Amino acid sequence: MQRHEPYGAETASVSADAPIVSIRDVRKFYGSLEVLKGISLDVLKGQVVCIIGPSGSGKSTLIRCINGLSDVQQGSISVAGTEVNDARLDVVALRRKVGIVFQQYNLFPHKTVLENVMLAPRLVLKESRASAEQRAKALIAKVRLTGKEDAYPGELSGGQQQRVAIARSLAMRPEIMLFDEVTAALDPETVKEVLTTIRELAADGMTCILVTHEMGFAREVADHIYFTDGGVIVEHGPPAEVFSNAKDPRTRRFLSQVI
Amino acid sequence: MIRDKVHARSSVLLMNVTRIRWQHVVGAAVLTVVALAATLILQSEPESPVATLVRWMPFILEGFGLNLVMSFLAMLLATLLGVPLGVAQVSRVYLVRTVAKGVTHLFRNTPWLVVLFTVMYVMPMTVDLGLTRVDISDWAKATLAFALPVMGNISEIVRGAIVSVPTGQWDSAQGLALTRRQTMTHIILPQCVKRSLPSWMNWYALLTLATPMAAILGVREAVGSAQAAMEAGGGRPDFLIPFYLFLLCLFFIYIYPIALLTKALEKKHAAS
Questions:
Q1: Which of A67, A95, A110 lies at the smallest CB-CB distance from B190?
Q2: Of A135, B20, B122, B254, which sits with the fewest C-beta atoms within 10 Å of its C-beta?
């Protein structure tokens, strides 16, 4: 029965209580500058985890390492049974499991909303046009943008574009969603509509990792908070603990500034 | 009242003039040629230079047809070779990138005339295709020679357009599990078309203006034909001005609208 041991195989399925994302002692350098100084972090399936901290503390770098958009020099990043920090990594297979949404939306400006959402399922998953279109329309409805299918990104508001970006990512049926400061570039009045979409996603049981400056939202929606500063995780715990009972003075100083 | 009306009409005319300037240039050129032709028919002394020009005009225009054919084919070839070369310049494979850069810079930084002579002498006169032998005519060689420098410049335009696409486009395409190749063909290159169109047209105009260089090698394009016509008409020195003025008009009438369109596209692109 040895071959059923989770150790050692790509086929190893992640059991319910094992973390779906497990980061161990990750270090990253830009030249001689160390931006991640030994980060460890665990996310369980279905959990919502928020990473907070001052600008330049390595939050965005960390989240981009989870789907291999940035590489790391040391440590291990395990995502749904795949080791990311491995030269033989099948990066396409990894990214099919991990969706990412960015601060600047990054929609494809030469394609309509519908085409933006359909593109990856058609190209990567080789879905038929009919089924990709049907799913795309359902996702566009889910982010409350029915009627905008034929609009180009340039014709939409920031909040609408960001919701298209979320729908586009969901079209790949990811197991994990990464959100990299997705409301930071938005007008205050459109922040809410994007947060609503993420809240619904979390309620559906999607595993979400967010880098965010929306402390109220983090407190409300997160199962676990990580506070980073200077490339290390200073403190982590359930939101009630971190927000009301921060132990580290750096966390307290940061929270007193942003809340 | 009447004065007002006249004033209004003339201002309408003025507006038209400023709006469609190049059509007027074309019109003026055509009128000049027609007027010159008329004067020559009325006064048929020992043939005037203009009369000689008019007599040989179909021959010269036929030559100009070859200038156009060479420009179309050279541009097609330059684009077909230059676009992949530009993409190769941003390849992640060191060897591919280096070779592409080398070829690009070689042809961008050498005189077109030198490339023309090199192609002329390096390329064989005939090619053996197994059963048949195909002659390579001089105009075909010249076309290839004009395509090469433009290929280098298109390669550089494409490279510049690719790197000008925001890196966020790469991030989001790769975040959606597209491969590098899929990202290039579906996301990056389509966005490069609009960016590079004005420069591409500019190079077409420059290429067309360079085609008379083929005359040096005996290709019967417009300038070569005009020179042959002057020779045939007796080689009188007073032929030179009308013949070359005619050539000047011919190229100007063809190229100037392209230049205007390029400018308009550039403006539109800058605005959007």
A1: A110
A2: B122
Q: Which residue of B has its CA nearest to A165?
A: B172
Q: Which of these ranges, A28-37, B32-41, B103-112, B151-160, has the smallest mean pLDDT? A: B32-41
Question: Is pTM, for the whole model, over 0.90?
Answer: no
Digit-coded pLDDT (tens) for A84-95: 998 889 999 999
Using alpha carbons, select from B95, B80, B257 the residue that is nearest to residue B154.
Answer: B80
> Are A120 and B191 a contacting pair at CB < 8 A?
no
Tokens of B97: 């990138």
Q: Do A104 and B168 touch (CB under 8 A)?
A: yes
Q: Where are the alpha helices (DSSP H) in chain A?
A: 59-66, 91-97, 113-123, 129-142, 158-170, 188-203, 215-221, 239-244, 249-258
From the CA of B181, how many Å to the nearest CA of chain A? 11
Which residues of chain B does A99 touch, with a Cβ-Cβ cutoff of 8 Å? 175-176
Q: Is the pLDDT of residue A12 over 50?
A: no
Could you give the CA distance from residue A150 to residue A162 in angstroms, rounded to a whole number? 16
The domain ranges of chain B are 1-45, 48-271
The answer to whether the CB atoms of B178 and A123 lie below 8 A apart is yes
pLDDT band at A210 (very low <50, low <70, confident <90, very high): very high
Cα separation, B113 vs B117, in Å, equals 6
